[in-house]
UniProtKB/TrEMBL annotation:
UniProt keyword terms in alphabetical order: DNA-directed RNA polymerase, Metal-binding, Nucleus, Transcription, Zinc, Zinc-finger
SMART domains from the UniProt entry: RPOL9, ZnF_C2C2
Organism, scientific name: Fistulina hepatica ATCC 64428
GO cellular component term of the entry, any: RNA polymerase I complex
Chief localization: nucleus
Domain TFIIS-type: 82-122
Pfam families (UniProt xref): Zn_ribbon_RPB9 (PF02150), Zn_ribbon_TFIIS (PF01096)
Function as written in the Swiss-Prot or TrEMBL entry: DNA-dependent RNA polymerase catalyzes the transcription of DNA into RNA using the four ribonucleoside triphosphates as substrates.
UniProt-listed GO biological process terms: termination of RNA polymerase I transcription
Places the protein is found: Nucleus, Nucleolus
Keyword Transcription appears in the UniProt entry: yes
Protein name, UniProt field: DNA-directed RNA polymerase subunit
Region (Disordered): 51-79
């Protein structure tokens, strides 16, 4: 009886190469779905599973806000050049100005002007 081939945290059937399922609770063997090879459940002992995700795989408003806070100071009367996507043309740079228009205990308002098409928009911070 041959034993399963281990690649990372995966076990493959030694007869046909099919990925073996994890053993069900209380079962002592795992049966290959393709060739019916029976692998002892103990083959899955001490397997460490590590998963990694690319940072952009799960977009979040907080991560997007952090990106917009990256400022490239540029001497210009239009404001500070930041990495912000224009809702009109999709350009990824805009000039920003921050102003306190509401009461002091509320957030400020950020005015954006696209560096490409000059479209303007605002966000209450």
């Amino acid at each position: 009886m041959s034993s399963a081939h281990k690649i990372g945290a995966l076990l493959f059937c030694p007869d046909c190469g099919t990925l073996l399922n994890l053993p069900d609770d209380g079962h002592s063997v795992v049966t290959c779905e393709q060739c019916n090879h029976e692998e002892p459940a103990s083959s899955f002992d001490n397997i460490e599973v590590t998963t990694r995700s690319h940072p952009d795989a799960f977009p979040s408003p907080l991560r997007q806000k952090r990106k917009t806070q990256t400022k490239h100071h540029q001497e210009d009367h239009q404001g500070t050049l930041v990495a912000e996507k224009c809702p009109q043309c999709g350009h990824m740079q805009a000039f920003s100005k921050e102003m306190q228009l509401r009461s002091a205990d509320e957030g400020s308002t950020i005015f954006y002007t696209c560096a490409s098409c000059k479209h303007g928009w605002r966000i209450n911070n």
